[in-house]
Amino acid sequence: KTLSHIINDDFTSEFNHLKKIKKKPSPPPPSTTIVDGDKEKDKHKEEEEEEVEKDNKVSKNSTKQSSQTGNLLQLLICGESRFKNLKIILENVEYDKELGEIKFIGNDDDSEYQSLSNEQKGIIKFIKSNDFIVSIEKVPKYPPLLYEIWEDWNYNIWPCVFRAHIFSTPLISNVKDETLLEMRKYMSLAIEQAEIGKKRGHKGIGAVLIDPNTNKIVATSYDQTNRISVDETPEISETQYISPIISHCIMTITNKLSTEQVDDIKKQMKEQKKFEKEKQFENRNENENKNENKNENEICNDNDEEKEKEEKEEKEEKEECNILSFVNLGQYLATNFHLFITKEPCIMCSMALVHSRVKRVVYGSSSRDGGLGSYLKIHTEKSLNHRFEVYKDFMEDECKKLFDSPEAS
Amino acid sequence: MDHLNNSSSCCNKIINESIEKETRKQYYIKTVEEFNETEIQEELSNHKKFMEAAIEEGYKALKEGEVPVACVIVYKGEIIARGSNKTNIKKNGTRHAELEAFDQIFLNKELNDRFKDSLLEECDLYVTVEPCLMCSVALQFCKIKRVFFGCHNDKFGGNGSVYELNFSPISNGRPYNCITGLLKNQAILLLQLFYNQENKKAPIPNKRKRLDPEELKKEMLKITENSSSSQLILNITQDLNSVKEKVLKDLNNK
């Protein structure tokens, strides 16, 4: 849209649109002062916003309508170089409301006024007829990065968009004291697990999985890279077995989780089947009571049919036992869970965390070839389909005592 | 605690990079076509045989409703272990084909005794799809000799597409060689068969109705009858049919 369009035809609709943005009644900013925010804002901003980018170093006419207090009309009219001419002209122009014409009272230079285009004339008419005050104000070049800054800018300076960066971890200073205390509690639990592992001849690394909604401990485990412990008792049952080279802390914890989940689901399915069977028996008994008066032959036929039915049911049961049919039920992997581990996980384990969709990881001491910050930063990798929050060096000294070496867990 | 930039971690990075440079001179990631008149070209028929065995496993996984990625571990010309994805059945996102194959070895007593100390130092791995970041590091822990794979995995691949982890210095690990592009088209076709099923979901989300892979193949042939790529697909499908017959025979015997 050209400016003349906006002013002559669509002005009212455009004005209403601006009104909608300004739901908050804002105090009218001083119209003559120049906001020197540009330099400060440059520090925060990285991305450029298309809307504002066009008007690089724009001068904006923030015009105030005297009749409508509170409602501030902001119109972008021209760039800084053009604005200087316009200001000079505006000072030397008067408007006759009765005639609807513009009179030029300048220093006898009609040529300047005649050189103006129709568009500019329209602007001058519009400004003069509505008693606007014209001033320069600076506008943010980059989008706001914090919500508070956006609130300030959007309602006081210029309508802009706030896009939250979802995957960045919140600062530890923003975390509440209560949650910090709980984090300490869980970390000390992980340290206990690490001590158990150390006693049995493994590396001193332990981990705890937690459901933050219910504050329940979902699973605990420790490093199990030695097959048989010092007591010569096999650590892992066959259902959750993994080869000892790979059975790092996180791999064992994911295995524990999955076996528990599968067991739970199987139990639920069995209970459901029992209910269904009981119902079926009740129905049958009723039917039999009704059929008591029938002939013997018919009853024999009924028995045959029942046998067939039972066979069918057995087949169905076998089919339903396939876990695939109820994989979608219940908790999906480790979504929304928080993990506490004493040592920074290696690349294999950190990728395993991506596969199992953890929400937050807190680890104690960092290691040379760790996957969450030291060697790679897998939790921020763009090509992967899941990202999560990571805090490092939480209760670092206690964790270092347990297992101090450049190896990752 | 919030910022991940420490002086110690920077030092570690420099050390790691210097080690990586040295390993890059010794080890390689190459496509099959890049080997001209070398060992691998001479034994190409052997490698293809093992890869076909891996693809067989992939078809079994496809029937069970898993993502059809499968692998085979070979020691001196013999297949020791076979593995395929079991993420859905075990409800565990980390149960990939490679890890399943390792478990097979370490659950078997004979094999376990043989490979206890030397690990998989003289074994080769044949996978249909490039191992993910997790598996490529796990292969370093197992000290495998060479890895053959079919197609690249742009999202998760740890041997060339996202990172090149077979070179990276990992404590307790040993870098290894990678050879890509072995029966690439067949591996891609396997994945295509799976994802085409996924796209045509049944209206009830819990129970998915799945199309037969054979029907899909016929449709593909119909579409590509007139185009130049029809011959290529025909060749692949002929190969696949031979593989499938083998699978069916095995199943019948069992």
UniProtKB/TrEMBL annotation, chain B:
The keyword Zinc-finger does not apply. Residues 45-170 form the CMP/dCMP-type deaminase domain. GO terms for biological process: tRNA processing; tRNA wobble adenosine to inosine editing. SUPFAM superfamilies: Cytidine deaminase-like. It comes from the Eukaryota. Keywords: Hydrolase. One of its GO terms (molecular function) is metal ion binding. This is Adenosine deaminase, tRNA-specific. The lineage of its organism: Eukaryota, Amoebozoa, Evosea, Eumycetozoa, Dictyostelia.
